[in-house]
Amino acid sequence: MPTIEKPQSDSIFGSVASPTLGAQIEVVTGFLRRRYWLILIGLLLSAPFGALYLRLTPATYTASATTLIESRKNPFDALLGSNAMPDFAWVESQIGVLRSRNVAAIVVKQLRLADDPTFIRSGYDPLDQFLARFGWGEPDPKSEPERVEGAIAALNNGLKVQRLGPSYLVRIDFSSPNKELAVKIANAVTDAYVFDQLNAKFQANRRAGDWLQERLQALREQASAAERAVVEFKAKNNIVPAGGGTVMSEKELSQMSNGLVSARVAASEIQLRLERIEAVRKAYQKDKPDPSAEQDETVSEAMSSAIITGLRTRYLDLVNREADWSVRYGKNHTAVVKLRTQIREIRRSIYEELGRIEENFKSEYAIAKKRQDEYEKGLAGLASLSTNNQAQVTLFSLEAAAQSYRRLYDNFLQRHTESVQQQTFPITEARQVSAASATKTGPKTLQIWAVTIFAGGMIGLGFGALRELMDRKFRTREQVQSLLATECLAVVPMLADTRRKGIFSRQQSIALERTRRGEFAIDRGPRSIGFIPKSMWTVINSPSSEYAEAIRSIKLMVDLNSRGNDTKIVGLTSCLPSEGKSTLAAAMATLIAQGGARVILLDCDLRHPSLSRVLAPDASAGFVDVVAGEVELADAIWTDPNTQMAFLPAGANVPNATEILASEAAKSLIHKLQIGYDYVIVDLAPIAAGIDVRVTSDFIGSYLLVVEWGATKIDAVQYALRAAPTVHGNLAGVVLNKVDMSVMGHYDRLGANYYYGQPRRLRSLN
What we know:
By secondary structure, the chain is α/β, with parallel strands linked by helices. Among the domains are: 21-56 and 445-470, no CATH class; 260-369, no CATH class; 487-523 and 530-754, P-loop containing nucleotide triphosphate hydrolases (Rossmann fold). It has 28 helices and twelve strands. An eight-stranded mixed β-sheet has the order 5-12-11-6-10-7-9-8, with helices on both faces. It has a four-stranded antiparallel β-sheet with strand order 2-3-1-4. Helix 9 crosses helix 14 (390-423), helix 13 runs antiparallel to helix 14 and helix 19 (546-561) crosses helix 20 (581-594). The longest helix has 59 residues, at 179-237. The two termini are 35 Å apart.
């Protein structure tokens, strides 16, 4: 059904209310009743494609293996300061590693998948796979790097890794047409992950060992330099260790030197811890933390704080919830955003608490530094007591520095030895819990057929909607009222054996059709209508039929519009030829005459006088001859012996039909007919035929526009009325003609059965 455009102003029936839910449902059901065959065609066309897909698609097997990513700790974690527990983000990161390119490359290399063209093609798009079956599409990769990249893409395309609930168990699924290969790949992914983790740890430990080695070399050189300075100073000042007392107390100087060494060591340790707590604060100052950075930047003083422990527990809980809710509801969900805000607030609280711990460290460092300064000041004071002991004081300072460097060197040497030992200690967080087993998972017949049916239905609906949009023809009363801003007077059903050009064709065709149906001609005198068409017989013999009721409603509306006029002059026209205006003119005149009124039917379609060829095929004179003054009116009128309806044929065929209709003689003839008859029914030419209809506005009071239902385009009618403003201004209404009442119900929510009560079939007139 074409879309009904809303008029700019309210029609004669008032403003149009918004459609209710029931009306919308009726529109949808009507659309389905009208276009169900297109939907069926879409389903029938899609069925072979679904069957072809099932026929050409090979069986798919999915192998599933379960792997445990453990949170175990190796013996060296405590030594390296890694005490953080794995959380949700850590497990998800490991799942990402399982799907990484490095793991896929290890599997491809281990199973030699780059040498299997069939496996490489499994990573193509479905269309490329289909074309590859016939030797079309892109050629297979030739070089080794291209084959490896293709194998990695195929592996990632069939690989699926997912966590099993809140546990540390991970299920690895791989789908492939080859059952044995799917099992091998699912098992090989775990092995490749373990190998990748071991290699990553080895590389990390090796880099740490290299850094410690460089630091040890620097400390060794510093310690050697300090010890060499002690030996050189002793040799320069001739200092030889000996017992006994001296001017300066050896014991006091020794205690002061030892205190200075302890103070320096304590200050150095506090400074290292202060630098470490500053690194921890920087890690918590970032908006997006690096979990690995936080684990490396932990210190025992911060972790032993009850406040920080509580905040970290709450922080890890919120991080897990934020990651879980992001997967469920999306990263931009309001609850997820609030969780992120709470996480930032907790991180800020931890940052502030760490700041307080840092202030404590700064205070301790200041105290240790002050103590060191006091020891140094004390040593300087003791040295000033005796110039003889000045060299010995300097010696004590050099020895203390040498001892400090030696202690630092020994500490780093121990760390380096532990790191080297850890490189040779193979440990990983993952192990396979259950080996892979394969099951058949494709093709999924029910899903494919469901998709096929859905696609076919959508295609059918699309074509149906396209047909609806392209159906720019009049179908309902509401269309006439909204698009033409005029009233639809009646919906005239199509007679049982009426065809587009069957009633008013050439006289020979009429005679053959009349003989075939068994109708007969009546000959009761000169200028008597001998052949009665189907429409006139229906009005006479079936007055209660839908067709007669429609003609009667047209006559009633004409009477209402012409109230106050003695004689009603009604002109029937159409936009295009063969829309049934002549048939309706004859039926309307017959109905009026049957009611006892004086009526005359004029055939003023002078270019194609179809009424004259049917009702008076032997007429030698008519309207043209009377207007020209060659024949008297009484000698040109024909009469229907059944209803006493008068009929004035068109007469001679003339090329200047417009000039005849616009002449004063034509106006005088119509005025004369007004005096002698109650109704003057004029069959006019179509509006699109020329200006014949426009020139009749001087003597025709109102016009009826006949529109063929489901055939005449809306744009054509609107254009015709704009081209004939005089006709549009005197338009009494529009008549929808040749309506298929069985189909009408598909377009109108009230249905065709409600126009005339219960549905009735026209009785046969044979």
